[in-house]
Please model this.
Amino acid sequence: MSKVTIPKSAKPTKVGKKQVLLLASGDLRLSANQMCWPAQRDMEKALTSAVANCGYQLIRAHPVNESESHGFIASQKQGMQIFAGIDPNAKLIVAEAVWQYSHHVLAGLISHKGPICTIANWSGQWSGLVGMLNLNGSLTKAGVKYSTLWAEDFADPAFTRKLLKWLNTGAVSHKTDHVTKLDKIKIPAAAKKLGRALADELRRDKSIMGVFDEGCMGMFNAIIPDHLLNPTGVFKERLSQSALYHAANQVPDDQARAVYQWYLDRGMTFDYDTNPDDPLTEDQVLMQCRMYIAAVRLADEFGCDTIGIQYQQGLKDLLPASDLVEGTLNNADRPPVRSADGSRELYPGAPLPHFNEVDECAGLDALMTLRVHHALHQPPENTLHDIRWGDWDASGSTDEYVWVFEISGAAPPAHFIDGWAGAIGLRQPPMYFQLGGASLKGISRPGEIIWSRIYVARDRLNMDLGRAKVIRLPDSETQRRWDATTVQWPIMHAVTYGVTRDQLMARHQANHIHVAYANSPADADRALLAKAAMADAMGIRTCVCGTRAGGKQWAKR
Model:
C-alpha cells in the first residue's frame, strides 16, 4: 500500500485557469494495481493529449510510486493526504481504466469545491467502466455534483466536444429522455394490486437481510442506511465473516463431499488442469462446499431471507473465493443442506438469494424480485452483474448493440445454457484471490429479462427498471468478449430495449445491474410492472427506462 506524507502545515498549491488535476483511484490490492497500471498509464497519456487539444493542461495530482510500480491512490488515508495538497477550487478529472475503490477518493471529492468529472475508457479489460459507475453512484448518494464522460477513443470529436464543454463551463450533461417516471405509466389493476399486497406483507411480517461485514471494496453506494431500509420492512442482521470462516471449518468432510458429488452428478465440470503453476484444486472446491453449507446454516440460524458475503477483503485471506457458493445459493435447484443436527432441510426447493460483494441495494432488489416472481409463477432465480462493457457483434450475427454483463459470483446456473451441465469452475484470478477457488462460469441462455437497480439519491431510495433480452452469440464472438474481459466469469449477452449505450451510462447509478428471467415477453412486462408497483408502495421513487420488446412504448396514463 502506498504511503504519502504531507505536512499538516502544507498549503494547497494554486492551479491555473487552464490547468486541470488528474486523480487515479485504484485497488487496495498491490497485485491488482501493478497488473492494471499499464492500461491506466496508456489511458492517461491519451487523455492528456485530448485535454491539450482543448487548450488545457492535465497535471497528475499525485506522483507515480516507482517503488510499487503503479500510480494509483491505494487507500482512503492516502487519498485524504493527497487532497490536503490540492487546490479546493481546481478542476478535477478522476480517470479510470480499472476497477477502483471509491472510498479512496470520496472523502476528498465530498469537500472539493471545484468542478469534478469522472472519465473512463471504453474497454472491458480492467473494468474501468465498472469502477467509474461505482464512483458515480457513490457521488450521487453523497450529494456531490459531478459530470461524467467515457470514450473508446479520446480523439473522437464527439468526446472532444463534451470534454471541451466541461473544461470551459465545469459541467456537461447527457440526454436521458429514455426515463419515464412511474406516475406517468398506466399500471394494470392486477399488477398494482399484487405490488401493493407484497409491499404490505413485507412491512407487516418484516424480513432480515444478513450482511457478512458491511461495505465491500469502498462501495459507498452499495450500503443502504438503516433509516431508509427499515421503513420497507427489511432489517439488517450484521454478521461477521469470521463467523462464516469458523462455521465452514466445522463442516464434516463427508458433508462437503456430498455437495461436491451433487455438482458432478448434475454435470458441472471443474478445470483442474489450467494454470499448472497455480491451479484450481479439489481441496479448494471442497472448502467452497463447506462454505456453502455454513452460509445456509448461518442464514437459517438468524432467520435471514437474503444474505451477502463481502469476500473481496478479509475472507479472501482465509478461504477460497465465495463465487461458487454465491451462484449455488441463487439457484432453486441446488445441493440440499440440512440443519447441523440433521432434523430438517433448510430453504428447500428455493434460492437463498445472495447479493454479491454485499451490495445491499441488490439484496433488497433480490428479495423483492423473488416475491414478485413467485407470485407470478416466473423463474425465481435472479442475480446482479457488472455492467462490464459493450460492443457491436464482430461476427455480424446481429446488428444490435450487445452488452457484456459479467460478474465474478452470484450468477445461478438456471440462467445458463444447459444449466448445471453448462457450468464450469475455473481457478479464480490469483491477483484477486490468492487462495484460489472455483468460479461458476457459464453463458446465459437466450430469453426475456427484467433489469433493475435500487440506489440512494437525495436521502431516498430510488429504483430504475427496464426490459431487455439475452441473445446467443457465435462461440467465437463469446470467446472474443471473454478474452476482452475475464475469461473465468459467467457472461450475459444483453440487448436493452429502448436504451442506448450512452443513455444507460448517463443514467445508471451503480456498477451493478440486477437481472431476472421471465417465461415470455408478456410475462416479463407483467413482472416489471408488478415490481415497480411494489417499489412504489414501499416508498421507493421509481422510474421505468426504455421500452418493451420491439420498441413498444409503455402505456401512458
Remarks:
- Residues 125 and 290 are 32 Å apart (CA to CA).
